[in-house]
Amino acid sequence: MTELSSAANAAAAGTTGFKLPGTTPAKTPRGYTPGLAAVNFGVYLALLTPVMVSMAFKVQHIDPANTEGSLGLVMGVGAAFALIANPLVGRLSDRTTSRWGMRRPWILGGAIVGLGGFALIGAASSVWMVLLAWCLVQTSMNAVLAAANATLPDQVPVSSRGKVSGLVGITTPIGILAGSFLVNFLPGDFERFVVPGVISLILAILFVAILKDRVLTEKPAEKFTIGMFFGSFVFNPRTHPDFGWTWLTKFLVMFGYAGIATFLPLYLVTKFGLDEESAIGVILAANLASMAAMAISSPLGGFLSDKLGKRRPFVAIAGVIMVVGLVILAVAPSILVVIIGQAVIGLGAGSFFSVDLALATEVLPNPDDVAKDLGVLNIANALPQSIAPAVAPAIIALGAATPLGGYATWYLFGALVALAGAVLVYRIKGVK
User: How many CB atoms lie within 10 A of CB 233?
Assistant: First the structure.
């Protein structure tokens, strides 16, 4: 990315507060933090409601004889598209010269396309149609995330990023909780997918309206090539080891959190004999407990992280707490214990989300490729949601032959993965 001319920079600074690429702002613009939190909430509401609740039942309605296999296919392939979209759109937004700004066209366009994809899923009558539409949704909504979160280094000074990251982080459980609540009042599959998509679009429009986006007035000298396309998904861990360890830590912790959660509806139906309506009610209660725990740990973690000037301990603590919650979930003898397990997982996840984005912005390799590098890190969010559904049927099948049972084995496997993330965070040397 080329630098703006000094004249253009002076004009931008005097009128809109835009900055040169790679510089740190002195103060967070008014309205930016709630706006970023709102657009993240909208994306997570739209994306995680299917992941946590509605997609399992949608697939079960279409293919009751092979629900686990079909669900794994849909979620796994869809997450692979998210894996590609996030860093690619990040890099493209770094090079966008629209007069609307670098990020805003991607945020608004992604939300519009995503709503169309959600409508297709709601109306679909075959697994293949659901699969294709979910790939469209994952691509477009991850474009929104890539562009929106790339505005953080543009808009927020380093000393405040823990606080902002904590507020943004709590939008994940709020989105899950809101989706679980909405599903209880939406009569069918179409509404369960479209209504969250509409809310997401409205919040994206609001964020775009208040965002003082940076404008790139000159096209980058380097052309976008096939090599650059593939470069959007890779980095050199030898050259930037802290970035590499951050990526791996994020992947392992997110596997234990998001990768495991997709099969909770089927776990409740299989182990406790619940019908669909009852399972949705339990998921709402479990997410409410998780949200309450996150509401404590996420803002507190962000505040303490900034105060102490440390990030790694909060990630390590998060991983250990999530391990405890996953073990509780695996051996739960009753619905009440399932809800307690989810609360413990939420407590750990809140600590993780409170510092995750702040830590990431401190290990980025190139200040002129912020969105691209954050997109590479976001692969660690998407990849567990691709790998986990792909391997889950095999692990569940193997576990079914043990006294613990298939789903208990699956949750214990997730606990081991999250524990590895808690340990490996201390391989990051450039951040305390």
Answer: 16
